[in-house]
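Below is the data:
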Amino acid sequence: MGTKVKGRAVSRKPSPARAVPRSTADAPPGAVEAQDPRAAAIRRAAFEAFVEHGVSGATTDEIARRAQVSKREIYRLFGSKEVLFTELVRERASLMRRALDLPPPSDRASALETLERFGREFLTLLTAPTTVAVYRLVIGEVTRLPELGRQLDAQGRGTVSSALTGWITLAADRGALPVPDVQRAAGSFMALLMGELPTRLMLGAVATPPDGEIRRRAALATAAFTRLWLSSAQPAD
């Protein structure tokens, strides 16, 4: 895959098994925020090498070759291959938290609209090929580096779930979403939204859902949430 880093071209042949990122949600970790161009090139090269060969199979020699830097530069910026992998995991978790910019709920209609938008944005990030690839890599390394799995879960899904619970708590307190059990309501929305999709994506059993499917799932999850938790509640004035 061809990459351009601050005017310097890095030519590589694309792997037939690796999808070319199509959006910010699908960009390799480290590609969203501006950073040291050498570090950005190393992160991108490491991600590609890890996806193709696994963390254990990818070598610093190959990462250096792909990034067109010296091994010394990799060690200077990241310390080790394992630290570099940890950084990639942390950045993917950070991207997943991008869906948490939720405006304060004012009434039932606007709260449900915000909930559906959250569902679309979070599911887009969760099902992006890059996110799926990172989860596969972490699962493959969980025996050797168990802390990575806990970190990805806590900083990614855990943070998102906690934030959503806090937002629904606020919505309930304001009467916009008067649910009787906030924790269960938040958990049920996440379950309705995701279903078996993340697992099937990691297994390669289904393709990355298109935007239309993402929107459909978010709308269905919001409608089901409404029936489960708000069917007997009167809309707030």
